[in-house]
Amino acid sequence: xxxxxxxxxxxxxxxxxxxxxxxxxxxxxxxxxxxxxxxxxxxxxxxxxxxxxxxxxxxxxxxxxxxxxxxxxxxxxxxxxxxxxxxxxxxxxxxxxxxxxxxxxxxxxxxxxxxxxxxxxxxxxxxxxxxxxxxxxxxxxxxxxxxxxxxxxxxxxxxxxxxxxxxxxxxxxxxxxxxxxxxxxxxxxxxxxxxxxxxxxxxxxxxxxxxxxxxxxxxxxxxxxxxxxx
Length: 230
Prior knowledge:
This protein has helices at 40-47, 70-74, 93-98, 110-116, 118-121, 133-146, 163-178, 190-194, 221-228; strands at 2-11, 14-24, 29-33, 53-60, 63-64, 78-81, 151-155, 182-187, 199-204, 207-213. The strands form 2 sheets. The chain has a 6-stranded mixed β-sheet with strand order 6-7-8-3-9-10, sandwiched between helices. Strands 2-1-4-5 form a 4-stranded antiparallel β-sheet, covered by helices on one side. A hairpin with a 2-residue loop joins strand 4 and strand 5 (63-64). It is of the alpha/beta class. The two termini are 32 Å apart.
């Protein structure tokens, strides 16, 4: 469904991705695990066409994405849930939810989203930034599910959240997965992704250095911890 081949990317003169290559099949959940600065978020930005300078190949359903505008890429059915959530302070919860354009007709409807995220709908008229961190994260997820995109890029969903909220997010992702969504998760919380992902790409110095299948997670935990700097 998505394939990155020898992808390089730069912030100005700073070379950040150094031959990033990975593959995601339809219906899979994969993670990018690595330390801060390893190139995980930059990989998501490159997929979305948000890097001014990049090279290599990013193919989605057989179509090359490099060189396309971010809005063109989004309309192909790819949505991103960014680090720090991107909630608009001046908008209410419902206004934040309804802001993104509809990318496909089979996005989750308001009633379905309310059943999945009842807490945020109870705060529908509140300003988005008055929500707790966990509620803001749920709103950010709900926002992209409404759009109809089926390929989701999710960046550091658990950062700064309490364990009980992380557990709720894991439950939500498993329910989303059951509906056939394809997901790339950028994470440093290995315990969170263990029960969710099919495969774990280990990222270091702007490239994938290894891939760990779900059934190998426990036996290769030492390697995963070293890559995460634990």
